Amino acid sequence: MNLVLIGYRGTGKSTIGKRLSEVLEMSYISTDEEIVRRAGMTIPEIVSAFSWDHFRELEAEVIADVAARDHCVIDTGGGVVTRRENVRRLKRNGLVFLLEARISDIIDRIRDGVDRPSLTGEQDFLSEVEQVLSARRPLYQEAADYVVNTSDLDVEAAVQEIARRFRGYMG
Description:
This protein has helices spanning 13-24, 31-39, 43-49, 52-67, 84-92, 103-110, 125-143, 155-170; strands at residues 2-6, 27-30, 72-75, 94-100, 146-149. It has 171 residues and is an alpha/beta fold.
């Protein structure tokens, strides 16, 4: 059984995922890192050279591969839920945790990120975050087995809460 982290950019998936893998003694996989490794390009380079659609195709290939593994903490990109097949694959052998945070916290956490290209290319930063998060929220909620708000918990408290729920599920 895998532990899968979903959620918008800046909700803590990578930081919490790495720590969870240590606490639970599971392998850690970042789907974004795997895409970058396979493509030999950064995410902004992939999007600039090809498109978001191309990135989503690469992501779907990576999800198909990592979802078939076992005993892993899988840190997914924020848009993984935009393709229902990704979610189906991840849930076959995974317990899905949605990490949420207040928009103000998300903005503070990702404002200076150079590895995070614009998702729409059309709006100011705050408007884009609000629009994309609003569109994805129902997809996140539908995919989630559990929800953890990282605005209200520090990293260690979030890790302990998720680990407790995962262990409880596993019996």
